């Protein structure tokens, strides 16, 4: 929040206030748009872990627990979460296979 205050310091008060209100709405998930935005943010992190480069010992179990409270609030998010969990489980199997060979 401190960084947001610094960024908004140069804005007129009405714009600064609007940005703070939107940020509060987003972080608390007070609107359908905020619920989706926050849920998509969590799913994007999970996908970065399964499609990006991780440390060899990356614990994919993290993905299966990460952001549940945000991805359970809308049917679309639940569906995307199920897909990303399946990808995570596939990565876990692949990682286990590499460790065994």
TrEMBL record:
Pfam families associated with the record: HD_3
Domain HD intervals: 5-71
Domain of life: Bacteria
Protein name: HD domain-containing protein
UniProt organism field: Roseibium algae
